[in-house]
Amino acid sequence: MTIQSPEGTRDLLPDEAKFWAHFKAVASDVFGAYGYVPIETPVFEQTDLFVRGIGEATDVVSKEMFIALSGENLKRLLDGGAVKAKSRLSLRPEGTAGVVRAVVQHDLVPQGAPPVKLVYAGPMFRAERPQKGRQRQFNQVGIECLGAEEPSVDAEGIIMLMRFYAAIGIPVEATELLVNSMGCDACRPPYRDAVKAYMDAHADELCDECKRRADINPLRAFDCKNPGCAAVMEDAPKITDHLCDDCRAHYGTVKAYLDGAGLAYTEDPKLVRGLDYYTRTVFEVQVTEGMGSQNAIGGGGRYDKLVQEVGGRPTPGFGFALGYERCVLALQAAGYAFPPARRCDCFVACVDDSVRAEAFSLVQALRDAGLASEMDHQHRSLKSQFKLADKLDAAFVVVMGPDELAAGQVKARNMQTHEEHLVDLAAAKSLLACLAAEPSGTEPLGIAEVFGGIGEGN
Ligand code: AMP
Q1: What is the pTM of this model?
Q2: Does 14-186+262-333 carry CATH code 2.60.40.10?
Q3: Which residue among 334, 362, 391, 427 sits deepest, i.e. has the most Cβ atoms within 10 Å of its Cβ?
């Protein structure tokens, strides 16, 4: 049996891989205009970073992490031995913890410095049950802004994310932006206690998992998919009724900025998000139709305690991550298809093998001039070379035959108009040389100028 890709993973085949590159380029443009610069961190980190950063009681850490062990350490464990903390590694389930670790390790926000704004893109790993829009390896693009607690950071981040969706082609009217505040160290603990008391009072209506959550992490019950639990949690105490004055003011200012920018949003006091590190602002963007249950295409929020949690000095932070695969599903629901990855401006066909070397050199010259070009590498007949050129959607086919070549000419066919011209090869090559010498700045020559009839013989 042939070996298949692992469960919960997807190959990005050429058309899509090209789109993924475009997706990252658009993110880099949109976020770059807000001052975000790229960072790359390893796909695996010490497990402890995720335990301390994301929280031991979260689903992501307690159930969904892929542990990475070297063969040697696996053997050591199987033999009943121990593995040093620094060799206990996990594949990253999200990007924030790693970026924050790098910021602390390299002191990217020295005391008194302006905030650092970072953008990353790459694969994340969660051992979840795969379904449409939920994979075990998926790609995220995310940003982190560290060093400022002003609500303007949160608002500009949210506005920037919505701009990205529009720029990539997800219709704004297909999305819903949900916002909430999760409070801070002062107001969240009493709120948690209030939710726990409420859950205890309704314990017989909750699923076993939520009964457990009431003790460990009661706020997670807001995300329970069980309809009975959802109905109970509908009437649970709301964080917005428990915010302290500072958190209320912060949340109010974020909303005022969003209003000022004309951004529509829905306040959702049940939005708690799955990771423990959030404080104050949290938000999520959902697609309203065509996505099934996995309809969140991005989300994030503020995390003013995380840097300390991983050993840095107190530094406020804000970030979000968006899921590439879910954005693709949203685009497809809106009728988007990937454009073909391949482009071919000119196919050089050989009448026989005697002209192969000359054809090879012309193809190189075309490519040097920036024109995507191709030739046959399998000794196909001329007819089959034309078929291949058609398949590649070539704009021009240049036919090289021994007789024409002896006269210093080639035949060029415009594949759209089917016009054919005899073209002087030396003239065409010198035009190509000009093209190669001036790749930008001057008015670019097109392939039509090179093969559209210059030096026409007859
Ligand atoms: P999170 O880190 O859970 O806030 O996720 C941020 C975004 O990543 C979500 O809004 C999704 O778009 C995407 N995402 C999270 N988990 C998965 C998954 N298992 N498969 C595909 N996309 C995911």
Answers
A1: 0.91
A2: no
A3: 362
